[in-house]
Amino acid sequence: MRKVLGPSFFNRPTLAVARDLLGKYLVRKVRGKEIALLITETEGYHGTKDLACHARAGRTARNDPMWGKPGHAYVYFTYGMHWMLNLVTGPDGFPSAVLIRALGDELNGPAKLTKFLQIDKRLNTKPLAKTSGLWVEDRGVIVKRSEIQRGPRVGISYAGEYAHKPWRFMVKKKKSGN
DNA sequence: ACGATGATGAAC
DNA sequence: TTCATCATCGTA
User: Fold this and answer.
1) A90-95, long-range: CB within 8 Å, 24+ apart, which pairs?
2) CB A62 within 7 Å, strand B
3) What does the domain layout of chain A look like in residue ranges?
4) pLDDT digit string (tens) for A79-105?
5) From the CA of A168, how many Å to the C1' of B4?
6) Is A173 exposed, middle or buried (CB count within 10 Å of its CB: 0-12, 13-18, 19+)?
7) Tens digits of per-residue pLDDT, A106-148?
8) CB of A163 nearer than 7 A to strand C
């Protein structure tokens, strides 16, 4: 089974998309080579009231992609050196997205995976599709509820009551030594 | 614990 | 136009 996920997958509540992305594959094609990696950690950012979400400041040049159509990439630059990959969720006109925080066991960190996959501003606003060189596939991996760990999002302690909302989803680590 | 390193948004 | 801040990471 190998199905490219389109807008109907992303045009759903942000937290449902964040949870369901666990076990899906992020695929990047660069210079003719495809790299497919399991999505193992995500965070949801939802609407203008979420003080951790970039859309809290209203619609701006930077966060504009979040307000657009579901199933597109929102890639932004932070800390003077890091690119972050987000997948836009919800209906056109509503600002929300899911941050991809980890792929597999190795690329555990949102800036590590973008560096490895050569994701930067060139992919911002692009649709998640083969023609963009970046897309998401369902390859039939099932992640059970019992394998999913939830917790507060990382690096947003300024966000008041939203700082402790459990909008981070991760696949529980397997025991070492397989 | 902290520095690297620059875009962003809000204040002035 | 200036300034503090930032959805981080590697080194200490």
Assistant:
1) A90/A10, A90/A11, A90/A12, A90/A13, A90/A14, A90/A46, A91/A11, A92/A67, A92/A68, A93/A67, A94/A47, A94/A67, A95/A47, A95/A48, A95/A53, A95/A54, A95/A55, A95/A59, A95/A63, A95/A66, A95/A67
2) yes
3) 3-171
4) 999 999 999 999 999 999 999 999 999
5) 27
6) exposed
7) 999 999 999 999 999 999 999 999 999 999 999 999 999 999 9
8) no
Asked whether residue A73, judged by its CB, lies under 7 Å from any atom of the DNA or RNA strand C, the reply is no
Distance in Å from B9's C1' to A19's CA comes to 31
- The CA–CA distances, whole Å, from A39 to A26, A36, A71, A139, A157 equal 6, 9, 16, 12, 25
Q: Is the CB of A60 under 7 A from strand B?
A: yes
CA A116 to C1' B3 (Å) is 23
- Residue–nucleotide distance: A95 CA to B4 C1' (Å): 31
pTM of the model: 0.96
The CATH class, in words, for A3-171 is alpha beta
